[in-house]
Amino acid sequence: MKLFTIAIVLVLEIISWSNDAAASCGQKKAIAQQFIAFGYRALAGSWPWHGAMFVRVPKSSSYACGVTVLTEQFVITAAHCTIDPTERQRLPPSRVFVKLGVTNLDASEKHAQQHNVDIIIRHEGYDDISFEDDVALMKLYTEITYSSHVQPICLWQGDKSLNKIVAKIGYIAGWGLDENYGLPKDLNEATMPIVSKQDCLDSDYDHYSKVFHDKKTFCAGYRNGTAAGPGDSGGGMFLRVGNSWVLRGIVSNGKTDPNTLKIISTSYLVLMDAAYYIDWIRSHVTIETTIETDAEPIETPAASTSSGDQANLLDVSQCGKEKYPLGTPEEFKGSLGQYPWLAVIEFVNLNTRFLEDVCHGILIHPRFMLTAAHCVQRRRLATLRSVRLNDYRLDTVTDIFEVEGKTVKTTAVRIPIKGVSVHPSYDTPKFANNIALIQLDQSTALTPICLPTKGTPVPANKLLSIVGWKKHSRPEKYLIRNVVQLADFQSCKRKYADTNVALDTSGGQICSTYNHDDNDENCSHYMGAAPFQYVRNGPFEGRYFLAAISSFGHSDCRREEYSDVFTNVGHYSDWIRDKLKQNE
Predict the structure, then answer these.
(1) How far apart are the C-alpha atoms of 142 and 140, rounded to whole Å?
(2) What does the angle CA 532 – CA 534 – CA 536 come to, to the nearest 5 degrees?
(3) Residue 299 dihedral angles phi and psi, to the nearest 5°
(4) What are phi and psi of 494, to 5 degrees?
(5) 566: three-class secondary structure by DSSP
(6) pLDDT in tens for each of the 584 residues of the chain?
(7) Is the Cβ–Cβ distance between 30 and 148 less than 8 Å?
């Protein structure tokens, strides 16, 4: 039975949900295709509880703040969002409306909803100087229709202490000013760790002592350029609790430059603690969207060497970004732009002068790739020349796709190779330490895959996949994906011993199986160094990590008793990091 082997398929949305489907809070129900400076573009339906608040001005309207859906008639935002910034007067409800299920502020989206505001309920303790009690509720004139793109968030229950969430990773989304201080069209998202009160105050006591209010607020941020800016105010900070998403913060304020009045993106963000305001919210709204959070529900990020490394080996903050909600089966994902780290290594044939595709390369850094050592060995009458990224069908120069009725063309990117570092113990024992680092002649803006930190095991309980191009002789060369299953290493080792191949027992190799069939009559292996990858969850939800690269398998791909052998990338983390630093 074939698990999945597909050509280029684009699946932008496969499920339609009725209002009856929204029986529980904090659930992402769409499968679909940064005031978040240095963040990422969010996909439609990825934050179904996040909406946009607009203010009517003469003959038009303008985007103002973010809101979060609580119930079919109430959204929550920051109180300062309901104050006219020019006149310093409270906005009447008639001047305010919200849009839900919207991703692009300029586009007309079929799943978007617009609701006028009936009542604005500002917290009675709100202070527009200190931002104390910067919380407001808005009751809508019409009821929200829940759908795959519009859902309510869960509210926090149980222990409300700040200690419970310090060092946890939260997500924020919004349309606030980006790093160039322009208003983006697309919804953006970013992750931020929650920091202790002391760390926040120590960073700038004079500033934060005026806007930090015990039990009512908390601070978050990497202080690395990822920040919330004007326009992100009022939006939520969302934490994953078990299988649900919970509102824990409301974006309130950030530190600004007194001369330019621009947000200082290397400072901490101050958020109102939504957990503190549960009783106040309940005094105005009948809330059923809560889940119990007394248990330790949120994965804590692994210890790291820098505040912004996203727990990946090379401190690449934007690595491996997934484009689909967590749990989306790999076969439901489109291939266009889905694996930007995947490349083909090219040799030039010295007789024909043609470029020949030999192996895979995997982008791990803007200027470096991983591959198998055997892929970059000297070859008779051929010279290593370049890598080719952004390709999908190897037998065509330009790939053409139909996306939502529109024709999309893509052309591969070719980058010359500057140098190669082969692991010094390659082929000792035979086929072991089969890993090499390729340095590119120039940087690329394409997204690298994340690398696990040292000691991170290949997850045995996750859906793992292999992606790339097969070595078959057919003229069509489509990108292929397969589910990969870990195999018992000891059994694999014993089997290969029968063929006089001794596998590496130090942890540098793992064994796995996948479907080699190309059709009912033929089977083949992937070209060398095909990436064996998985999507990591917890605070790093939505990021691909590289588990291993393909090394070798039995020459007869019909011999199912022989698993394929992969090079375990995590085992070589020290070597990868050291070589990269030497060559940067």
Answers:
(1) 5
(2) 150
(3) -65, 130
(4) -65, -40
(5) strand
(6) 222 222 222 222 222 333 334 447 888 775 433 233 334 455 567 789 999 999 998 888 999 999 999 999 999 999 999 999 777 889 999 999 999 998 888 777 788 999 999 999 999 999 999 999 999 999 999 999 998 889 999 999 888 989 889 988 888 888 865 444 455 567 877 778 899 999 999 989 999 999 999 999 999 987 644 455 556 889 999 998 877 899 999 999 888 777 765 667 678 999 999 999 999 999 999 876 555 554 444 443 333 333 333 456 776 767 888 777 766 777 778 777 789 999 999 999 888 888 889 999 999 999 999 999 999 987 778 889 999 998 988 888 777 777 667 787 778 899 999 999 999 999 988 889 999 999 999 999 899 999 988 777 888 766 789 999 998 777 778 888 998 889 999 999 999 999 999 999 999 999 999 888 876 678 889 999 999 999 876 545 578 999 999 999 998 888 888 999 999 999 999 999 899 888 76
(7) yes
Q: State the Cα–Cα distance between residues 315 and 8, nearest whole angstrom.
A: 32
Q: What is the DSSP letter of 547?
A: E
For 96, list phi and psi in degrees, rounded to 5: -120, 140
The region, left, alpha or beta by phi > 0 then psi within -120 to 50, assigned to residue 381 is: left
Compute the distance between CA of residue 478 and CA of residue 461 in angstroms, rounded to an integer.
29
Cβ atoms of residues 150 and 100 within 8 Å: yes
Rg, C-alpha atoms of the chain: 26
Measured CA to CA, the distance from residue 118 to residue 139 in angstroms comes to 6
What's the angle, vertex CA 197, arms to CA 192 and CA 200, rounded to 5? 60
What is d(CA 263, CA 181) in angstroms, rounded to the nearest whole number?
9
d(CA 322, CA 190): 13
Spatial separation of the C-alpha atoms in residues 560 and 260, rounded to whole Å: 66
Tokens at residue 396, please? 């065509």
**Signed CA dihedral, 98, 103, 105, 111: sign only:** negative
The b/e string for 99-131 (b: 16+ C-beta within 10 A; e otherwise) is bbbbbebeeeeebbbebebeebbbbeebeeeeb
Q: What is the set of domains in the chain, with CATH numbers?
A: 33-282 (2.40.10.10), 330-583 (2.40.10.10)
Q: Is 414 helix (H, G, I), strand (E, B) or coil?
A: strand
Q: How many beta carbons lie within 10 A of that of residue 386, not counting itself?
A: 18
Contact indicator for 419, 396 with CB cutoff of 8 Å: no
Cα angle: 75, vertex 161, 65; to 5 degrees: 25
CB 76 within 8 A of CB 70: yes
Cα 358 to Cα 345: distance, rounded to the nearest angstrom: 6
Please state, in angstroms and rounded to a whole number, the distance separating the CA atoms of residues 273 and 268. 15
**In the block, which residue shows the tokens 């609701």?**
115
Task: Using CB atoms within 10 Å of the CB of residue 50, give its burial: 0 to 12 exposed, 13 to 18 middle, 19+ buried.
Answer: buried
Closest listed residue to residue 237, CA positions, set 278, 280, 193:
193
- Which H, E and C letters describe 306-327, residue by residue? CCCCCCCCCCCCCCCECCCCCC
- Report the distance separating Cα 135 and Cα 24, nearest Å: 24
Peptide bond into 429 cis (omega under 30): yes
